[in-house]
Write a structure and sequence with these properties.
By secondary structure, the protein is an alpha/beta fold. It has helices at residues 2-6, 12-19, 27-42, 101-124, 143-150, 159-173, 198-207, and strands spanning 46-49, 58-64, 75-82, 85-93, 136-140, 177-181, 210-212, 220-221.
Length: 224
């Protein structure tokens, strides 16, 4: 959990899943924990590299709606990058129940938008030698969620979605955020919501700035 919080965003999903069974783990979960530890042992020289480019705050969000038969709640996540590396990320199992993929994606979008607002205000008060961010671009791979977000009126019946729609609408209107479509295979936050193949894990990890940095003198957050 320490590594996941400070330098390894790509293991957030598996750490979250394993954390649910800490009291009564069976052999299956011990085996999964062993796989995770072997991965960490084989990638001890990995860290997040901040190259300084691009000096633009960008966000990615995603949700995974009930992927297993024993699941009743969905997982939502976001990643924000600045200077070529991830600066904040989150993968969380939500307490509410969504009735569709669109609802789960919209809840994840609102969570990312709230974080974008905070980050934009935070960076405005730090002398980074960069121009103030005019707006934070949030990348989402659900076109229906984007359409609802940009619609002035919400016609659905779920109150928790309506309240989130009001917040997103205000952030769009004030110019705090913009919402852009991104293909699922290019969404950096995918490994924080679901299991992925090796190639996708490597690609998204590189997109978050996570690279082998042995013998390089760069500004990094070093894993233990």
């Amino acid at each position: 959990m320490h590594l996941m919080s400070f330098s390894r965003p790509n293991i957030a999903y598996v750490v979250g899943r394993l954390s649910r069974y800490t009291q009564f783990p069976n052999q299956e979960y011990w085996d999964e924990l062993g796989r995770l530890m072997r991965y960490l042992r084989g990638s001890m020289d990995y860290a997040i590299e901040y190259s300084g480019f691009p000096v633009v705050l960008k966000g990615y969000n995603d949700a995974n709606w009930i992927s297993d038969s024993d699941e009743t709640k969905f997982t939502s996540s976001y990643v924000f990058t600045l200077g070529g590396g991830a600066i904040t990320w989150r993968s969380a199992r939500k307490t509410i129940i969504a009735r569709s993929t669109m609802e789960s994606e919209f809840v994840a979008l609102e969570m990312a938008d709230s974080e974008a607002e905070w980050l934009k205000n935070f960076l405005a008060n730090i002398p980074l030698g960069m121009k103030p961010t005019p707006f934070v671009s949030i990348h989402c791979d659900c076109e229906s969620a984007i359409t609802i977000a940009k619609n002035k009126n919400y016609n659905g019946k779920n109150r928790h979605i309506q309240l989130r729609h009001n917040l997103v609408k205000q952030l769009l209107k004030s110019g705090t955020i913009s919402i852009d479509y991104v293909k699922s295979e290019q969404n950096l936050v995918d490994p924080l919501t679901k299991p992925l193949g090796r190639n996708m894990i490597l690609e998204t990890s590189r997109g978050m700035g996570l690279k082998p940095l042995a013998n390089k003198q760069v500004m990094v957050t070093q894993p233990l």
